[in-house]
Amino acid sequence: MAQKMQIDDVEVTFSEGETVLEVAQRHQKEIPTLCYDPRLEPFGGCRLCIVELEGARNPVASCTTKATAGMVIRTATDTIEAYRKTLLEMVIGENREVDVHPLRGYASGELTNLRDKYAINEPKITGAKSGTSKADDNPFILRDYDLCISCYRCVRVCAEQEGDHAINVMNRGFRTQITTEFDGLLKDSACTFCGQCIQTCPTGALADKKALRAVDEVADAALNKTRTICPYCGVGCSVDVLTNDEKIVGIHPAMDGPANQGALCVKGQFAYDFVQHPDRLKTPLVRGEDGELHEVTWKDALDKAAEGFRKVHAEHGRYSIYGIASGRAPSEAAYLMQKFIRAGFGTNYIDNCSRA
Amino acid sequence: MSNPLVDMQKPDVIFCIGTNMTECHPVAATGLKKAIARGAKLIVADPRRIGLAEMSHLYLPLRVGSDTALLLGMAHVIAREGLIDEEFIENRTTGFDDFFEHISQWTPEWAESITGVPAKDIETAAMWYGTADKSAIYYTLGITEHICGVENVQSLCNLALMTGNIGREGTGINPMRGQNNIQGAGDSGALPNNYPGFQSVTDPKHQEKFKAAYGKEIDLEKGITKVTALELCGDSIHAMLIDGENTLLSDPDREHCEHALRSLDHLVVVDIFLTETAELADVVLPATAWGETDGVCTNTERRVQRMRAAVPPPGEAKSDWWIICQIAKQLGFEGFDFDAPKPIFNELCHLSPIYAGLDWERIEKSEYQWPVPHKEHPGTPRLHEDTFVNGKGIFSNVHYRDPAETISAEFPVWLTTGRRLQSYHTRTQTGRAQGIDYLLPEESLEVNPADLQKWELTDGEWCKMSSARGSINIKVKATNRSPRGTVFASFSFADVPVNLLTGSGYDPITHTAELKVCPVKLEPL
Questions:
Q1: Fold of B413-524
Q2: In angstroms, what separates the C-alpha of B264 from chain A's closest C-alpha?
Q3: Is the ipTM of this complex over 0.90?
Q4: Pick the CATH number of A3-76 from 3.10.20.740, 3.30.930.10, 3.40.50.2020, 2.30.42.10
Q5: CA distance A173 to chain B (A)
Q6: Helix, strand, or coil here: B490?
Q7: Which residues of B touch A211 (CB under 8 A)?
């Protein structure tokens, strides 16, 4: 049953179990976060989402505070905003670089955006920097921990979303370091290279090494996204294909994809470049008198394709022709394949590749 | 799948059989992992100690090809212990009395003698599955790629029907489909027995409908399956049009398959690469790939989704639909005047009752799972909630059958085949993606370490593996993932063509090949 609370002097309704942050976001309140990923359990680490709760001595983290009836919340008082700015200054002061390329990952611009929003041009707090980057020769995941702010989103997404528990935290406090078991390489850990850690990282510390190959070619503004479905198994994960100047440069999981809700596997995340591989067939081929395949025009290829069917049909009748449709081409192809056989020859001599 | 993917987080007991989900459907497996984290129990039946087995609460390491026996044993225990859902059986099923009598003979002790799984573990699995409020079955090709694939699936249906674990949230019988549009290919009518929307070709009513739509009298008889067609190549089949399938590598008994395709008078292959199959063609037509093609696909939970082009195709590559239309028009066929995928999909929707409420615009946001019988219908995330399509759920009195070939003095080792996380099918795609080689550079034969000495093999060295159909050389990898006496390899690598060896038999009804069982012998090189 819907209950009532007040946010910024407006009465709002919420459902049992919702957090203050969720209720506020539903009502278009812009509350900054860094350790928050809506797919994960609330963590309450970064404290940026603090709000004023009437009757409480101190501000509370809205991501971990459950909404209760009669609550009075203020999301952006001067005091709260000042706290947030100070917290951000501390995070940024400890970090080596805040401007990162969007190719690093889906959420990699979060810290940059907050810095700009709070106009932290020159950090007031300077001193030692935390995090040490890890050399790892894997081709997919850059472990640039110089940029790590210890939000634990990577650790939590690996455990909660992916269920792999491949990465965890070594040491505490200023010496906190994200790593794998025995501080080794990802390939020697339980990591499946699904890339979820890359996509949730709010600073680009974990980054898409494969996408970054195109970093010199891609101006920030030129990166286009096209929503489609992964080309691999039958789960049907939604992805956004990142393109620049007619070239596929990377993949983002679609966080609102109905089948995957932001998850991907190593194939969907990283195995996209077969599309623009030099081996692609670019011209029709026809077998010549010499027994070899030769490049020909579409007209000649279609003539030859049709002629062959016509000839076999004339010599052997309609039960001599068979069609096999693809399980990877779109349904329009499969539909027309069966129509070709049925409307063309009047038989049901059609199948697809599902029997192997 | 009877149930939507989101249901994977909701069962109390999950029974996975013949599915290596963490490798073959990794994103679906994340749902199961969440269910387990929440407290659900996982039962895994698989000959190999796969990742799922490692995370299970009860692991049933059955001998390859013995699934029916295991499932009969479980049904026996469920009936014996009175764990049946009498109300469900009464209202929703037929044939239970006969079935009850049939399974009385198939004790867990008998099942142990066939499967090698201890009778007490079979009992535990049955008790867990039978007592939970919500039990769900997940399976993949480990169930269907057998000569008894139909009996295996029927056995799973028996379990769900007798316990009422179908038609509710967190339950169901859920096969996981292996390719991004293999469901859509069937939906679209690329089947010898069904028109689009699974309308039987032997029903005169459907024949009339398609005669009117296509202006052509179509046979009232079922066509032949691909398996039969390949057998008849050069005999009665003389021409083939193959769209986007590397038949030569993916299908069993490669030599037979190559011989079949070579004996055709005319082979036209539409593909994105010059695959091993395309190399045999008379005409090869370059198709647009994923990422270059606008179209529709349907996933394993029957969700109809849009694929969109992000980049232009290379050279003169064209969409599959365009290519098929051009060939059809050259042959003078009517009804192929399409200039875009949208009217093609809309025609499919118009002719297919399960898509009747859909069109190109309505699937924009991936909201619908078929059946969607009319425009006001919200789609059907969960099948069989109130009724079964054919009325009542039918119990099947199945019997166990041995695989087509069983181990012998000459071929004393069971080979089972499958897929790996990092490679996909015949590697036409993943083999051309940078970085994948770092994770999986080559194929290897997974052998139990305790078997190495017996067969004079050395970990990391090559061996010769032979079946009744041929021999290949493959590198040995010692691992406890394989049980004693059984070895595993994937069919992905062209230089280790495992499907030279497979092909011992087919399910007589579905014509699905028994790719999961192949007796072999191993010799050091």
A1: Barwin-like endoglucanases (2.40.40)
A2: 10
A3: yes
A4: 3.10.20.740
A5: 29
A6: strand
A7: none
